[in-house]
C-alpha cells in the first residue's frame, strides 16, 4: 500500500494537456505529432556518487530532470515528458516532499509532464529518469556531423559545477545543484548546427566524443573558454582543469558552419555563446594559447576508471 500512497501523494499531479493518459494505468498514452521522431533518453543518479549525500532533496529532484532534458536539448529536440523510476531505502516524507517539488519545478519550467514510473524499496537511493521529446523527422543533431572548418561553440560557462563541488560555500555551488538544461538553444540549433553534445563529463571528453564520431580533430583556443571570474583567479593549470575536465555543467557544445554561425549570432538568444575553436582535418584535439600549442591531457569523469 505504501507504494501507492507515495505515488498518489507526491507523483500524481495533473499532466499538461498534450498527454492522453498519464500516471495511474499500466502505461501512459501519447499521440506523437505528425512528421516528428520520438527522442528518448535515460539517466540515473545514485546517492553518494552523482550527488553528495547531504544535497537538498529539492535540488536532487530538479537535477534528475534537468540532466535528462539536457540530453534531449543536445539532439535539437523539444522535451515532452518524463518517467521516474525511484528506489528508496525508506519512506521519508520530508525528503519526498522536497524531491517531488524540485522535480515538478524543473518539469514546469520546461513544459514537461511526469507521465509514469516505478517506485521500489532498495538499500540505495537511486533515481532513474527517462525523458521523451520530439524532433522534426531527420532533423536530430548528432555527434557525428562535424565538418572540417566548422566553428566550435559552447553555451554559458564551463567548469562552474566542478568548482562548486570543491567550494561548497561559493555561489557556483548553485550551478552544481541546479543545472539549467539549454532547451531553447538546443531547439534553435536543429536547423543550424552540424553536430552537438551536452557537456556532462567535461568539455575535453565530450568534445572528444564529437571528434571521434565525426572522424575529425579540433583546435581549441584556451583564452576563449567561457569561465567564471572565480576560475580566472586560479593558477592556469587548475583553471584549465576545471574548464576542460570538470563535469556536470550541462551546457551545449556544438559545431556549426561559418555561414550558420553568422546567422546564429544574429539571433536573440537567452544564453551567451562562446566560439572556442575550429574543427580540423588532423584527428587530434589540440589546445592553443596566444598562437602557441599547449600540451594538456585532461580526461573527463569516467565511471569505471
Ligand atoms: P504496474 O504494477 O502496473 O507496473 P505500478 O503499480 O508500478 O504499476 O504503478 C502504478 C502507476 O503509477 C503507473 O501508472 C506508473 O507509471 C505510476 N508510477 C509508479 N511510480 C511512479 C513514480 N515514482 N512517479 C510517477 N509515476 C509512477
Ligand atoms: Mg500493470
Automatic annotation (TrEMBL):
Residue intervals of the PurM-like C-terminal domain: 168-283
The keyword Transferase is assigned to this record: yes
Name of protein: Thiamine-monophosphate kinase
UniProt: Mg(2+) 1 binding residues: 43, 118
Pfam family, one: AIRS_C
Any coiled-coil regions, as ranges: none
Protein's GO biological process: thiamine biosynthetic process; thiamine diphosphate biosynthetic process
Residues holding ATP: 117-118, 143, 200
Pathway: Cofactor biosynthesis; thiamine diphosphate biosynthesis; thiamine diphosphate from thiamine phosphate: step 1/1
The organism of origin for this protein: Acinetobacter faecalis
Domain PurM-like N-terminal: 24-135
HAMAP family in the cross-refs: TMP_kinase
Amino acid at each position: 500500500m505504501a507504494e501507492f500512497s507515495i505515488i498518489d501523494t507526491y507523483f500524481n499531479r495533473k499532466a499538461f494537456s498534450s498527454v492522453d493518459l498519464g500516471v495511474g494505468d499500466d502505461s501512459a498514452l501519447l499521440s506523437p505529432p505528425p512528421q516528428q521522431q520520438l527522442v528518448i533518453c535515460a539517466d540515473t543518479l545514485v546517492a553518494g556518487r552523482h550527488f553528495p549525500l547531504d544535497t537538498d532533496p529539492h535540488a536532487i529532484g530538479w537535477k534528475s530532470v534537468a540532466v535528462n532534458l539536457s540530453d534531449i536539448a543536445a539532439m535539437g529536440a523539444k522535451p515532452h515528458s518524463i518517467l521516474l523510476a525511484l528506489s528508496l531505502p525508506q519512506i521519508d516524507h520530508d525528503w519526498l516532499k522536497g524531491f517531488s517539488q524540485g522535480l515538478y519545478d524543473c518539469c514546469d519550467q520546461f513544459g514537461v509532464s511526469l507521465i509514469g514510473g516505478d517506485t521500489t524499496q532498495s538499500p540505495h537511493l537511486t533515481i532513474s529518469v527517462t525523458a521523451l521529446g520530439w524532433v522534426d523527422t531527420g532533423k536530430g543533431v548528432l555527434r557525428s556531423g562535424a565538418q572540417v572548418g566548422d566553428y566550435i561553440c559552447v553555451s554559458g560557462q564551463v567548469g562552474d559545477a566542478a568548482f562548486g563541488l570543491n567550494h561548497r560555500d561559493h555561489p557556483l555551488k548553485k550551478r552544481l545543484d541546479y543545472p539549467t538544461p539549454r532547451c531553447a538553444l538546443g531547439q534553435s540549433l536543429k536547423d543550424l548546427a552540424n553536430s552537438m553534445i551536452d557537456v556532462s563529463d567535461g568539455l575535453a571528453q565530450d568534445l572528444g566524443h564529437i571528434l571521434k564520431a565525426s572522424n575529425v580533430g579540433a583546435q581549441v583556443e584556451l583564452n576563449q573558454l567561457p569561465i567564471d571570474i572565480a576560475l580566472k583567479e586560479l593558477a592556469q593549470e587548475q583553471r584549465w582543469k576545471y574548464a576542460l575536465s570538470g563535469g556536470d555543467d550541462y551546457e551545449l557544445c556544438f559545431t556549426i558552419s561559418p555561414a550558420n554561425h553568422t546567422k546564429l549570432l544574429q539571433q536573440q538568444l537567452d544564453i551567451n555563446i562562446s566560439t572556442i575553436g575550429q574543427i580540423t582535418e588532423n584527428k587530434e584535439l589540440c589546445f592553443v594559447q596566444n598562437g602557441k600549442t599547449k600540451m594538456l591531457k585532461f580526461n573527463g569523469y569516467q565511471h569505471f576508471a
